[in-house]
């Protein structure tokens, strides 16, 4: 560090020269006791060297005991005690080995030991140090020479340590050079292999370019001639294909021919054009390739959480650009100008053929911008009296492909169906294909729509236009009603017949049975005729079966009375019997029974319980089409007639039925609702 013997420490030599010494304070003396100074000789010499004035009498020496002086004089003749210093000798090889690496052999040649009287040859320098002979072993002799030797030994040891470190560094450098040489050789070999592969790729690309130029002059060119070249690029040069984006070369080669082919292509007549060829080149064109970016996780308070994805707008691939700029305009022209939603199958076939192959943004554009606007307009303009196609023909073929868009299309279609039923009259036939829409609607919504728009019209048809005349029977009104069997819930349909058909039928039967010369055989045939007029599914309905059973009971009663039947056979009052049966059932059942919902399983709500309870007592629970003034809850009419007249107006709130009580509405039980509705 720049220090020289005989000079002070520091760059300018202002530091101490002699090492720091300690001075023992005499026994029994404190600090500065009786003028005792603790300054050592070393500190005095250093002070004088710096130019300070120091007195020799500065220190007051303590008195020495007489016995101590005598003991020191008596020990003066004795030799000083020898202090044995253990010296450890190390060879150069040991020092280098301790430095971390085994050094190479020195190879210094023959070594002669000339320290003794006669020279001798030794194996190593270390053997010289093993000699026990020294010129002098007295440590008190020639101290200057011994000091100089120590300085020389220290300097040699320092040089030896430096040489050992340098040898270790050279060994490390040698290893690094060997590794670097191997790496560079491998890199040169890889570069040479890469150059060779790039030359082969260039040859294939040149073949593709020459093939594209030849096909440019051919009128009816085929894309199949490119398949061997594209396959060769993918199989033999897959790494280079992705690394150097060779799909740009593929798309550039086929674009002129694709433009000419699409210009002559009619997508609606031939939806499979080009798609089979493109599918075979799917890997070469990089169709729908997903960029799989590894998801990193971040520690959030000790938990692993994936950061939100970063939305980055990616540019189109060459093939996506080809589809967007060449293929999609042709599709847009054909759909806008040549396709009609009333004949959806060509467009549906085209979409099904290409949807799994197209990129998502191209497929969505085709559906949202080209197809669905025309479908929406066709549904909005659809008129059952004017259009020859049904509504489901416009809508149903697209349902498997709409996904989350289905509610937009089906919402318009449901509104059209409701409008159709509102404008329907009892003299018209059942709307064509109306049954297929039953599964589209929620069962409750369907029943409410039928109760509001169809049941009153069918009830009026039976009440006003249907007459029972055994001599000249007109069955058309009843046939029109029966044609609705599969579209109306059985409980509602049976109530319709029980309230509008059977009272008339039983009255005619009673009149016939009280005639003086009645023929029971003719009555039985007439009964069989009417029962056979209904389908088996209608005959098994509880209310319908009960009506015919009531007719049999009336016939049996007339047979029992015989000649007294004209005077003693009571006229059947089906209305009064229904009221009595409802009152008895209400008294018997303290809690409303739960009836299985039709069509599909639903969540059981209090409204469904009220509807089922009303149906159990031959009552209709129909929307009134208005709301209560204060609560703003929708009102419902509970009535035994399908005409919507009479009955009881109620609304449902907080799992209770509220009915009018004077000027206010109060909560009532379901039994009270049935009794008040039958008054």
What is the CA-atom radius of gyration, in angstroms?
58 Å
Shape: elongated
Bin the strand percentage. 5-15%
Secondary structure: number of strands: 9
Q: What kind of oligomer do you see?
A: single chain
What is the mean pLDDT?
A: 78
Output the structural class.
alpha+beta
Uncertain ranges = 59-63, 101-105, 291-305, 589-604
N-end to C-end Cα span: 122 Å
Arrangement of strands in the largest sheet: 5-6-7-8-9
Helix share, percent: 40-55%
Major sheet details: 5 strands, antiparallel
| Tally of individual helices | 28
Structure description:
The longest helix is centred in the N-terminal third of the chain and has 74 residues, at 143-216. 52% of the residues lie in helices and 6% in strands. A five-stranded antiparallel beta sheet has the order 5-6-7-8-9. Strands 1-2 form a two-stranded antiparallel sheet. Among the domains are: 17-62, no CATH class; 92-132 and 143-181, no CATH class; 454-572; 584-679, no CATH class. The model is unreliable at 59-63, 101-105, 291-305 and 589-604 (pLDDT under 50). The chain is α+β, with helices and mostly antiparallel strands. The chain is elongated, with a radius of gyration of 58 Å. The chain has helices at 41-49, 66-74, 92-98, 125-129, 143-216, 227-236, 238-243, 247-263, 275-280, 282-285, 318-338, 345-355, 360-381, 391-395, 399-402, 406-423, 443-453, 455-464, 476-482, 490-500, 502-513, 520-532, 536-539, 542-561, 565-568, 574-588, 606-616, 670-677; strands at residues 111-113, 120-122, 298-300, 303-305, 620-627, 634-639, 648-652, 657-661, 664-668. It holds the Pfam family GCFC. InterPro entries: G_patch_dom, GCFC_dom, TFP11/STIP/Ntr1. One of its GO terms (molecular function) is nucleic acid binding.
């Amino acid at each position: 560090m720049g220090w020289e013997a005989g000079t002070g420490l520091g760059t300018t030599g202002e530091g101490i020269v002699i090492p720091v010494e300690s001075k023992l304070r005499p026994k029994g003396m404190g600090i500065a006791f009786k003028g005792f100074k603790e300054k050592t000789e070393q500190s005095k010499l250093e002070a004088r060297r710096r130019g300070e004035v120091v007195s020799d009498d500065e220190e007051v020496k303590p008195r020495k005991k007489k016995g101590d002086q005598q003991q020191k004089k008596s020990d003066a003749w004795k030799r000083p005690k020898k202090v044995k210093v253990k010296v450890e000798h190390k060879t150069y090889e040991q020092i280098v080995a301790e430095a971390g690496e085994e050094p190479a052999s020195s190879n210094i040649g023959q070594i002669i030991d000339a320290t003794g009287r006669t020279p001798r040859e030794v194996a190593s320098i270390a053997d010289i140090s093993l000699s026990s002979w020294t010129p002098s072993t007295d440590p008190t002799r020639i101290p200057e020479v011994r000091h100089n030797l120590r300085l020389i030994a220290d300097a040699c040891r320092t040089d030896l340590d430096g040489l050992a470190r340098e040898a270790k560094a050279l060994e490390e450098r040698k290893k690094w050079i060997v590794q670097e040489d191997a790496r560079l050789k491998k890199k040169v070999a890889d570069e040479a292999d890469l150059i060779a592969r790039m030359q082969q790729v260039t040859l294939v690309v040149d073949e593709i370019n020459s093939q594209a130029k030849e096909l440019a002059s051919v009128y009816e060119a085929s894309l199949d001639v490119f398949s061997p070249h594209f396959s060769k690029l993918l199989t033999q040069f897959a790494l280079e294909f992705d690394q150097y984006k060779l799909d740009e070369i593929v798309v550039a080669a086929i674009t002129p021919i694709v433009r000419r082919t699409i210009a002559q292509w009619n997508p609606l007549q031939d939806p499979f054009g080009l798609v089979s060829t493109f599918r075979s080149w799917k890997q070469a064109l990089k169709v729908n390739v997903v960029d799989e970016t590894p998801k990193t996780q971040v520690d959030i308070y000790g938990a692993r959480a994936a950061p939100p994805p970063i939305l980055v707008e990616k540019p189109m691939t060459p093939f996506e650009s080809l589809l967007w700029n060449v293929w999609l305009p042709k599709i847009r022209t054909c759909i806008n100008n040549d396709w009609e939603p009333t004949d959806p199958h060509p467009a549906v076939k085209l979409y099904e053929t290409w949807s799994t192959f197209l990129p998502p943004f191209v497929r969505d554009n085709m559906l949202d911008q080209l197809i669905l606007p025309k479908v929406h307009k066709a549904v909005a303009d659809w008129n059952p009296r004017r259009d020859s196609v049904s509504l489901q023909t416009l809508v149903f073929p697209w349902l498997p492909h709409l996904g989350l868009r289905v509610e937009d299309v089906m919402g318009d279609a449901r509104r059209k169906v409701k409008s159709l039923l509102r404008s329907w009259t009892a003299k018209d036939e059942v709307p064509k294909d109306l049954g297929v829409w039953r599964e589209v609607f929620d069962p409750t919504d369907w029943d409410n729509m039928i109760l509001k728009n169809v049941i009153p019209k069918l009830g009026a048809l039976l009440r006003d236009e249907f007459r029972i005349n055994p001599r000249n029977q007109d069955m058309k009104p009843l046939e029109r009603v029966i044609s609705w069997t599969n579209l109306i819930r059985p409980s509602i349909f049976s109530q319709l017949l029980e309230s509008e058909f059977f009272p008339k039928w039983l009255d005619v039967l009673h009149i016939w049975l009280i005639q003086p010369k009645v023929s029971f055989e003719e009555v039985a045939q007439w009964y069989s005729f009417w029962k056979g007029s209904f389908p088996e599914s209608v005959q098994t309905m509880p209310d319908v079966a009960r009506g015919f059973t009531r007719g049999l009971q009336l016939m049996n009663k007339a047979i029992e009375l015989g000649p007294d039947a004209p005077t003693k056979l009571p006229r059947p009052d089906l209305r009064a019997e229904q009221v009595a049966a409802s009152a008895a059932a209400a008294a018997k059942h303290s809690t409303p029974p739960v009836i299985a919902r039709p069509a599909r399983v639903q969540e059981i709500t209090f409204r469904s319980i009220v509807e089922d309870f009303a149906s159990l007592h031959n009552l209709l629970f129909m929307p009134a089409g208005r709301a209560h003034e204060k609560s703003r809850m929708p009102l419902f009419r509970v009535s035994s007639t399908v005409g919507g007249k009479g009955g009881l107006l109620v609304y449902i709130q907080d799992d209770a039925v509220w009915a009018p009580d004077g000027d206010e509405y109060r909560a009532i039980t379901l039994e009270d609702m049935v009794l008040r509705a039958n008054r």
